[in-house]
Each structure stands twice: as structure tokens, then as C-alpha cells.
Amino acid sequence: MAVQVDIDVETLKCEIKKTYARVSSEPDTEFIFPTGRGWALDLGYPADLLARVPDASAGSFAGVANPFSLGALAPGEHVLDLGSGAGTDSLVASQMVGAEGRVTGVDMTPEMIATARASADELGAGNVEFVEAEAERLPFADASFDVVISNGVIDLIPDKDAVFAELHRVLRPGGRLQLADVTIQRPVSEEGRRNIDLWTG
Fold it and tell me: Would 132 be classed as within a structural domain?
């Protein structure tokens, strides 16, 4: 059942873009959420694969948990990284799926996309691409992906029904979701749901 949220979604998206543009351009800044390569290691990312991720991407890592803890990706799989940010998860995934596999990162923040593309070039990851798009309207054909990974993104989107409908549409039959995200234990007050700062961080 969808929860009505009395918030201007376009204003929210604008504020989220501003926040994550800063994560990309100012990775050494202290945010209200943890960031960086050390944080990814603390979350249990495979150290050997993470070590190959260029500093520009790893320094701007802003995930909340480790979607790979739900299982390694298999060689040859086609993977969608929803809310790929600076590309850390996509670049780890690209190493797991190998040359026969494919990873597509999607993010709505142009600065994050630019960082991710530069890091993919630096890594020589020819099996990964980054697309600027929104989670509620994915620009892909039905049944395009074997796996969807996502890390700390779906919690930022008010219309979760739309996101999950899109994920269902683009996943192949028998495909799987490996999601790492924030959950709450108690209902959020009306005032809290209108507070953009709570949504963006």
C-alpha cells in the first residue's frame, strides 16, 4: 500500500542531486552519512575487487550496506545497478561478471555519472556503461537484466511502487534483486515526511 507523501517531488530530486553532486566533487567532505573506500571495506566488499576501483569512484562511495553479501554475481550475467552513483558497485560488479557479462549503471546525478564513466575508462572496464535516468522510468526493454543491484537508493524515492514495478519489468523471468537499503522500524511523522533534509541524507 503506497503512503501519500506531502512533499514536492521535483524539489526533493533537486536537493538529492545537489547532495550527491557534492559527494562526487568533494569526496573528502564530512557528510551525515559515511563515505569512501574505507567504508566500503568496513561493509565487507571484496578487498581484491575494490582495490582495482579508481580512487575517484571509491572516494565517493556512499552506500549503506553490501549488496554482494547476498551472493557474488556470476560470469556472463547482465546486471543493472540502480542508483549507481560514482560507480563503485558497478565497477566491482563488472569484475565479477567478466568480459562476457554486462553492467549498466543508472543514476540521475550528472556529476556522479561523469565520475563513474571516467573511472570505468581508467579501469578499462569495457563491459560497463552509465546512463543518466530516473528509477521510476527506466529506459530499457522488458526482461533486459539477470540481476538488479542497488545500494541506499530506493529509500530516497517517494514512489517506491513505481520503482519496484520498473524493476519487475526489466528483470528477466527468474532474475533476482540484491538490494542494500535503509529501513525504519516505526512510522515517520507527517512533519518528518515533509522534511527534505531527512529524505536527502
Answer: yes
Contacts within 8 Å (CB) and 24+ apart, 11-18: 11/196, 12/158, 12/196, 12/199, 12/200, 13/108, 13/134, 15/196, 15/199, 15/200, 16/108, 16/109, 16/156, 16/199, 16/200, 17/108, 17/109, 17/110
This prediction's pTM: 0.83
Q: Is residue 3 part of a domain?
A: no
- Tens digits of residue pLDDT in 118-159: 999 999 999 999 999 999 999 999 999 999 999 999 988 889
The total of structural domains in the chain comes to 1
Q: Where residue 45 sits, what CATH number does that domain have?
A: 3.40.50.150
pLDDT in tens, 80-116: 999 999 999 999 999 999 999 999 999 999 999 999 9
